[in-house]
Amino acid sequence: MQQANEIDLKRLVLAVRRQFSLVLGAVTLFVVLATAYLATTKPLFTAETLLFLDKSITNTISENTSGKQMAFDSAAIESEVEVIRSRGMADAVLRSMKRDEQTEEERSRQIDEFLSSLSVKRKGETYVLSIKYTSESPQEAADVANAYANTYITEQLSSLFDISSRTATWMKSKIDTLRQQSLDAQNAVTDYRKRYNDSRQGFGGRNNNGEDAVDKEGLAELNNLQKEADTYKALYESFLAKHETVNMQQSYPVTETRVISVATPPDHKSHPITALILGVAVVLGAGVGVMLALIVDNFDRTLRRGGQVKREIGVPFLGFMPLRKKSRRMLPFVSSAGKTVNLEMMTSSIDDPFSLYSETARTIRHAIDSRYGNGSNGNAKRVIGVVSSDSGEGKAIVAASIALYMAQFSGTILLDADMRSDSKRKRSKSNAGEKGLEDILLGKTAIKETILHCKSHNLSVIPSFQNDLGQTLAFLDTDKVKRLVDECQKQHDYVIIELPPLTSTADVYSFAQAVDCLVVVAEWGKTQPNELNFHLQQNGMGAGNILGVVLENADMERMSKFYGHKVNT
Fold first, then answer.
1. CA 314 – CA 303 distance, rounded (Å)
2. Torsion of CA 505, 511, 512, 513, to 10 degrees
3. How far is residue 548's CA from residue 441's CA, in Å, rounded to a whole number?
4. Bridge partners of 416?
5. If you ran DSSP here, which 8-state letter would residue 44 be given?
6. What 3-state class would DSSP assign to 1?
7. What is the model's pLDDT at position 434?
8. Does residue 306 contact residue 548 with C-beta atoms inside 8 Å?
9. What are phi and psi of 70, to 5 degrees?
10. The pLDDT value given to residue 68
């Protein structure tokens, strides 16, 4: 399972590398969009002021007030945060900044703007509150942040003043009541004492026992009245002292909040953050690019690997022929009349025996010998057609490479049957008057008079010069082609025929009947397997008579870098 995951990951990485230009394009697009956003978005500035909730400075007063100050636990601090965020506080800030001369609608809109640009947070687990305000103007951001802090402190002072005023009013009423109650109690003591003294004088003729009883009862009652009077007096004096303290607090109100950091106009913008925007753009661009790369790579069905050939076409893979940048040479061919004709050919299959051109030609030769026997077998079939789905896919290069390689070991002739090719039109202009394949098919000349031979490479060629091309194609038939091929087989071990492209159905059919097997050429990274299969079926070419497929013009550097295929080119 781990190995499978590693293989899948490797395939994903290779797929992204293959489509890296797409990933780079997506990143570039997102960066351009981000740059445009940064260029068109107005910068915003954020100023911050810090408030410290310090209750220690109020302890000496709060102990003497009727309403003790609130302990600053977490819930209390969060409550203060919500107070600062409230619409009432925003309205008070507007008044403090002289912005209250507005209609109700304008005022409501201004409050909404304040609240949307305001941030109030507690700094960790401390007693410090952070008030931030964001604006397009650095000065306005600092002014509003400071106005919020100052207004909050002012509102707290006003609240404390209101509380002290209400407390003082209540206490004054209570003091008046206690004063009257104290006076009433003291008068009751005085009256009772007078009655008590008078009653003692009226007991002169009674016995001692009766007098003692009266004294005890009178003294007890007098003591109770005195205690009540003392109690009212003590309450009165206590409330009077507290009333003085409240009056002092009302004159000098103290708030538990103070500013520990005043907001100043910021030097740098807080939004948009250039580094963050560009970083996000790069990440998003890379993500979108990778996704697109995987999608494009998944839908890319062009033939690039040998495994695809077997899977998509159902025939063997014969090899690669690299990019068309290797040696091309003008080879001297001599006609039967002794005239020299120079033909350009790709000679890498014989110039460099370790090249892929040579390796692929060698593989094709072994495949032919394995299927039909080697050149010593007189009954061996050795007519090989080289065909491609469309023109320009490199079949001429493959046909020439095979023919030059085969000619090193056995007599080989190359028939240039792709008479419509543009390269043949250029050849006909530089070799005007030369006899070619068209003349043989029209019966204007004998085969031996048309064959050109390169002595240095032991290769014979029947070229096409597009002589009377229209007439040739009009009268082209299978019998003429078979007679031509049979005559070539009498003198050569291998007959290599460069067939017309599969899109030229009539031309291909006439020549394909004369070949024993086909080498199909597909251009690396361009030929679609479904199109190639369609053209093969349309021309009646099945897997039974196809020797295999050659991938021509292959970028082996990309194969090694992006497909994990390492091979000596």
1. 13
2. 120
3. 29
4. 498
5. B
6. coil
7. 74
8. no
9. -75, 135
10. 41
The pair of three-digit structure tokens given for residue 23, joined into one six-digit string: 């990933």
C-alpha–C-alpha distance, residues 447 and 450, integer Å: 5
For the chain, which domains are there? 2-41+272-299 (no CATH), 45-261 (3.30.1890), 332-562 (3.40.50.300)
Gap between the Cα atoms of 95 and 447, Å rounded: 111
Find the radius of gyration of the CA atoms of the chain: 55
Length of the chain, please? Answer: 569
Cα(526)–Cα(122) distance, integer angstroms? 64
Block means of pLDDT (10 residues each) for the chain, length 569 residues?
54 79 92 94 94 60 43 76 91 81 80 91 90 94 92 82 75 81 81 74 50 64 80 81 70 73 92 92 93 84 87 91 75 86 84 86 88 60 86 88 91 87 57 73 84 91 74 69 88 90 79 88 91 88 88 84 64
Number of Cβ within 10 Å of residue 161's Cβ equals 14
Q: Which residues pair with 331 in a beta bridge?
A: 343
* SS3 of residue 414 by DSSP: strand
Instruction: Tell me what pLDDT residue 567 has.
Output: 60
Question: What is the pTM assigned to this prediction?
Answer: 0.60
If DSSP codes are grouped into helix, strand and coil, which group holds residue 356?
A: helix
Q: Are 406 and 412 in contact (CB under 8 A)?
A: yes
Quick check: 144 and 93 in contact, CB under 8 A?
yes
Cβ–Cβ < 8 Å for 490, 457:
no
